[in-house]
Every structure is written in C-alpha cells, then in structure tokens.
Amino acid sequence: MSAHENIGRRNGSGRRTFLKQAAAAAAVTIVPRHVLGGAAGPAPSEKLNLAGIGVGGMQGLGDVRSVSGENIYALCDVDQNHLNKAAQQFPKAKLYRDFREMLDKEHKNLHGVTVTIPDHMHATAAVWAMERGLGVYCQKPLTQTVWEARLLANAAKKYKVATQMGNQGYSHVATRIACESIWNGDIGDVTEVHSWHGGGFSRGIVKWPEAEPVPPTLDWNLWQGRAQERPYSSKIHPIHWRGFLDYGTMMIGDWGIHQYGPANWALGLGETSPTSVQCFAVEGVNPVTYPNYACKFQFPARPCPYVKSGTMPPVAVYWYEGSMTKLFKPPQGLTAEDLKSINQVFVGTKGFLGTSGRGEGVTLLPRPKDGSRLQPPEVLKRSPGHFQDWLRALRGGEPACSNFTISGPYTEWMLLGAISWRFPNEELKWDSKNLRFTNNEKANEFVRPQFRKGWELKEITV
C-alpha cells in the first residue's frame, strides 16, 4: 500500500415455559428506561451499565471488551461454553442464556446492549431492547432482511434510544476523506461504483448437512430463534451460518456492508433508495446456501448539500461476490496493478477514487506518482472511535454516525442484492415507500422473513 493512501488500519419444554411466563408478563406495561431516567442520559462521570447479547463466535466477546471501560452488568449467550469464557473476564456480570429473560429482568438496570449474534436474530434482539428503552450497538449487517432493516430504523425513531451498527469503517477518517474528496469534485461526477469480495462461507454445501447431536452446552432451539426448526450441524454453528439462506447474508452482508460505507455516505444512497436491482450473473444456485453472484443497483439523481450543483447524477452501483469477482474488469484508464489493495472503485467524469478494507483506506487512482495524500477541505467532524461514538450518544450526546436511522436505510438497499440472484437477468423495480417490487410478486416473498411461532415481530410505524 502506497504511502500517500489515507489509512489507519435452550429445549422445547424450556421454550414453552418461557412463553407462558412471557404471556403472563405481557399484562404489565413496560416503561422504557429513557422515560424513567430522562432523555439526557447519565452524567459523563457515571459508568454505563451494559449487557452483551452474544459473547462468542468471531466477534461477540470482542464487542463486549470494546465497551469494557463501562460496567459490564450482564452477559447472555445460548452456548454455555461461550458464556463461561466471558464470565472469566467479567466475573461480576450476571449470566443469562435467553436474552428475552435478561431484558425483562434487567432492563431497568441497564443503559444499553451489544448484539453480536447471527444475522437472522439481530432485529429480534434489538427490538426487544429498544422497546425497553435501551440503546443498542448491533453488529453488521444490521438485519438479515429488508423488512427488518426498515423495522429497526422505525424503532430507533419511535423509542429515541442511542443506536449504532457495527460497521467500524464509518468512523474511520479515510471514509470521511473519501466523502470530502468526492464532494470537492476531485473525480468529477460519480457515475459508477464497483465493489467486490471473493470470500464466502459454506461454499459447496448444496443440501442440508447431516444431523449431529447437539452439544450439551448449546441451546439449539434458542439459537434458531425465529428461523424454521432444523437439525443441528457443526457445519452451521458457530461460524458458517453466514452462508446459509436461513441465517445469514453471505458476503454482501459480511463485507459489502463495510466496503459500501464510503459510497453510501458520499453519494447519499441511503437517503434515496435504488429504483431497481438486477443480478446479471450467478452460479451455484441451491436451496440451502447462497450462490456466487453479481448484481447492479440503479440509483436516480439525488440532492446533495455538499456539492456545488446541489444534486448528484444517477449512479450505477455494482457488487461482485465469490467466483463472480472474475467478471469485474478495471475501468478504462486503470490497470489491475492500479487496483492492488483496493476493493471498491468510484468512476467519475474526471477520474477515479479507490477505497480499501472497511473504508479504512482511500486514494486517487492511478495513485499519484509524487506520493501525495488526498487533502480535500474538511467538512465532516472526526470520530472518537466507533464504540465511543455510541457511548457518547448513550450519554445524551449527538447521534452516532451509523445510528439505525442511517444504517437501516443503508442495509435496506444493500440487501436487495441478496434477493436479486433468485431472479437472474431480471430488472427488479423497487418501490421503497411501500417496501415492495412492483414487477415481481415472487420476489416480494423474500423482503420479509418467515417467523417461527412465538418469535413474531410486529410492524412499527412512526
């Protein structure tokens, strides 16, 4: 990487018992914490009481550690092994297996929660917390489905709690410099964005894995949550659920949500919504896991207060994942060498800009021969750090940079791509206001999740 680049770098009976208890408790009105304690939040010198929902896997305990300057009041995980390991580091924390039980018992003692569990349960845990007046830091992607993304954005507006999605690059100075460079006109009007990631989970699994005994420490019923009941397999938990249609979003949700950050912010994509999405290549389609695919989102012209003209022209945003990254070719004027270490390129009428990592690197392309850095006029306030940004909001400060009113619409448009591959070479027309495709009723079946009985979420309107 050249020097000029701006970088930084449980069982059935248990569930039935709980549902009976929950039904009895439903008659009790939940008074959100922000109503009891006031909107301003605790004093800066007061430690926040936080809980971690999900403390294992790839990031769970890491997220809790990232806020451990506060008081870690409670921990929750469906896997006792994960819970035990976390408890060694936070021995004073109360321990729970079911986040619903924890939130019902402890919400008056908490200020906020981190949610670091499989994608299909993000919205459920987040809504339970927000309904009880708690702030939420939720890992990316914000949700597994488009409908849930809208739900969380509405919930954040309704309950007025501090929220943040875990796309750390949004807080990185390089993402802000990318925005400022584009607004400054350094590459002219942006007409195309190309982003790609060749990784994946569960590639090659095309039928449901053979059933295995459920580990004695794991509550598989709770892990499945709202999803259809399935047999346990170590090919799913703890890591590779990301590639399964029932639970994850594959690479667009795992890394696309990071990579697209500079584009979403700089081009105001979440403030409008695409008019259509089209999958133009796909291979490996099967009924269990995500295939390899490439798709295009078409966005209309959009108002932008940061550019001289006040508007930005229509833009085509491309995504390539898995083996379909082979379809991406450097735009005319760039070479493969120019794109080394880059995972997203902006095509402008006067030049090119590349970003890397989670938006943690930015450079003009081709890279300036003199090694100079991008230094556009500073427009955006610099971040204290992604977790600190949320903690500041919890204390009554300004909203976090990727709060759910921002990350909800962002996740919403991006997850249209995770629907598009089911209808290859068909331009799916999107009506964002009504949250539906106007020219394909079958596609609308994938906008909203199917809920297992007892796990339903209701519409939230504002």
| Low confidence ranges | 1-5, 7-39
Tell me the helix content. 25-40%
Mean pLDDT: 92
First and last CA, distance: 46 Å
Total helices: the number is 15
CATH homolog superfamily of the largest domain: Dihydrodipicolinate Reductase, domain 2
Reading off the top of the CATH hierarchy, the class of the largest domain is best stated as: Alpha Beta
CATH architecture name of the largest domain: 2-Layer Sandwich
Sheet having the most strands = 10 strands, mixed
Class per helix and strand makeup: alpha/beta
What fold name stands as the CATH topology of the largest domain?
Dihydrodipicolinate Reductase, domain 2
Number of domains: 2
Q: How much β-strand is present in the residues?
A: 15-25%
Rg for CA atoms: 22 Å
Characterize the structure shown.
The protein is of the alpha/beta class and 462 residues long. It folds into two domains: 10-168, NAD(P)-binding Rossmann-like Domain (Rossmann fold), CATH 3.40.50; 170-380 and 404-444, Dihydrodipicolinate Reductase, domain 2 (2-Layer Sandwich), CATH 3.30.360.10. Helices cover 28% and strands 18% of the residues. It has helices at 12-25, 33-37, 60-66, 80-89, 99-106, 122-131, 146-159, 173-183, 220-224, 250-259, 261-266, 386-394, 404-414, 417-420, 441-444; strands spanning 6-7, 49-53, 71-76, 94-96, 112-115, 135-138, 163-165, 190-197, 276-283, 292-299, 302-303, 311-312, 315-321, 344-348, 352-356, 361-365, 428-431, 436-437. The strands form three sheets. A ten-stranded mixed sheet has the order 1-16-15-14-8-13-10-9-17-18. Strands 4-3-2-5-6-7 form a six-stranded parallel sheet, with helices on both faces. A two-stranded antiparallel ribbon has the order 11-12. Helix 6 (122-131) packs parallel to helix 7 and helix 7 (146-159) runs antiparallel to helix 13 (404-414). Residues 1-5 and 7-39 have low confidence and may be disordered.
